[in-house]
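Form 7-S
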Amino acid sequence: MKVFVHTLVWSDREYLPELFDSLETQSYQDYTLRVLDNASSDGSLEYVQTRAPKSVVARNNKNRGFAGGHNQLLHFTMKYLEEDEDAYILLLNPDMVLHPDCIGHLVKALDEQPELSAVQPKVYRAFRQEGDDEAIAEKVQSDVLDTTGLRLNKNFRMTDRGAGELDKGQYDSIEHLFAPSGALVMFRLSALRDVMIENEILDDHFFAYREDCDLAWRLWRRGWNCAFVPGSIAYHYRGMYGAEKQSLWSRLRNRRSQRPFFAALSSRNQLFMLVKNLSFTNLFLYSPWILTTEVFRGLYGFIFEPQTRRRLIEFWTLLPAMLKKRKQIFRTAKRKPSELRPYVD
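Output:
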């Protein structure tokens, strides 16, 4: 099976040397690396052109977001494959460092289980501890978990499973998940083709944030499964850190430290995802949790966050497009809404 590694670069120059070092030391080397630069302004493109010139696919003149950029990479790859030819696609954030056996374990899992649409590695947190001299800042690959996949909560928000926990072996079993994290995940291309809507795999309207949750939900509805592969390990220099289990006050404090643009997208895109994928039955059953969360977040964002206010108004202008996509998702679904409930925590 052909394997393609896709990474989308947006002013990520500081992370690229470690990323490329880890790719070059993979025990599994039978892959093709493809990089798209999303209008970087920090020399990222120049670095990639020097380090791995054959990997560069294109450079966008403006930032097309995570969804739009990865759709470009996916369509570029599909263009050079036969119409029914399958492949494995690793979506890889540029602020990742892969353990030498990371890719090999993911490929093996997909080879052995053809019903899987995606496989999720165990991802730990990496840090840069700045000292007096930034040139000798210490890099720490911790044993604190960043994600072991996404968990579906009663309010139908997805959170990184195990985030902030010290790894004590509590996530060392291979198991099915509802959703993988888009930060690092290997997909089966035939599964992605199966859920395309109007030539989109990731929803371009999302731009960034929660597009991976939307894609995972659509894959699940079409009958595909996702698995966690703990033998596959990576480290993530995530921009924002938080624990999976937090109080409302902690979540509010973390939100206030986010960049307003991304907080606004997250709020709007959560509503997009619910409109597209949530059945009326599950909305009724889980309405106390869903409405409490969304009403509180919506009111807070509308009152205190100007960018969120604009995005929430924008939600209503794009609602017809979301409803159109919803029709296709429900028309082609192979799983009933009731089958989702065992995944809700």
